[in-house]
C-alpha cells in the first residue's frame, strides 16, 4: 500500500530536520536509486510517502540515512572517523498491500529501528 519513514534525533530530543535520506530498490548486491530527499521539520519526507500504492512492490529495499552529515550540520563535535556515518537499513516488503513504516531513532553513537504502523 505505501512506505514511509520518520527520523528522531535522540541526542537532542527532536525530529532530524535536514537529514539526507536515499531510498533504493535492491536485488542481491545490486541497488537502484529510487529517491533522494531531505527530511522536513517533522523529520519526515516533505512529499509525504516514499512509495505510494502504485509504486509499492514486493521485494527488498534499502534506506540510507546521512547520520554524520546531519550531526555535523548541527555543530556536534564528532571524532574522525565518525562512529556512525551512513546508516543503511535493508528491509523486505512481503505484503505490498500493507503500509510499511520504517522509523529511525538515532544519535551519533547508536540507532534503532522497527516496523512501525
Report what the structure shows:
This protein has a single domain (2-113), classed as Immunoglobulin-like. The chain is built from one helix and eight strands. It has one helix at 67-73, and strands spanning 2-9, 14-15, 20-27, 30-38, 59-66, 86-93, 99-106, 111-113. Strand 3 and strand 4 form a beta hairpin. The chain is globular and about 40 Å long. 20% of the residues are buried. The model has no long low-confidence stretch (mean pLDDT 97).
Query: C-alpha Rg, in Å?
Result: 14 Å
Structural class: mainly beta
Read across the widest sheet, the strand sequence of neighbours is 2-1-7-8
Q: Helical element count? A: 1
What percent of residues adopt helix (DSSP H or I)? Answer: under 10%
So, CATH architecture?
A: Sandwich
| Beta-strand proportion | over 45%
Elements, N to C (H/E)? EEEEEHEEE
According to CATH, the homologous superfamily is Transthyretin/hydroxyisourate hydrolase domain
N- to C-terminal distance: 12 Å
Number of domains as seen in the coordinates:
1
Largest sheet: 4 strands, mixed
Pick out the low-confidence regions.
Answer: none
- Return the CATH class: Mainly Beta
Mean pLDDT: 97
Overall shape: it is: globular
CATH topology heading: Immunoglobulin-like
Number of strands: 8
Amino acid at each position: 500500500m505505501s512506505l514511509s519513514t520518520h527520523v528522531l534525533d535522540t541526542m537532542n530530543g527532536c525530529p532530524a530536520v535536514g537529514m539526507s535520506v536515499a531510498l533504493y530498490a535492491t536485488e542481491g548486491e545490486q541497488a537502484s536509486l529510487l529517491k533522494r530527499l531531505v527530511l522536513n521539520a517533522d523529520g519526515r519526507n516533505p512529499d509525504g510517502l516514499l512509495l505510494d500504492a502504485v509504486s509499492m512492490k514486493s521485494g527488498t529495499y534499502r534506506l540510507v540515512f546521512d547520520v554524520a552529515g546531519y550531526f555535523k550540520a548541527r555543530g556536534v563535535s564528532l571524532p574522525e572517523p565518525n562512529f556512525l556515518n551512513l546508516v543503511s537499513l535493508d528491509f523486505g516488503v512481503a505484503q505490498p498491500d500493507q503500509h510499511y513504516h520504517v522509523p529511525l531513532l538515532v544519535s551519533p553513537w547508536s540507532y534503532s529501528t522497527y516496523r512501525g504502523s
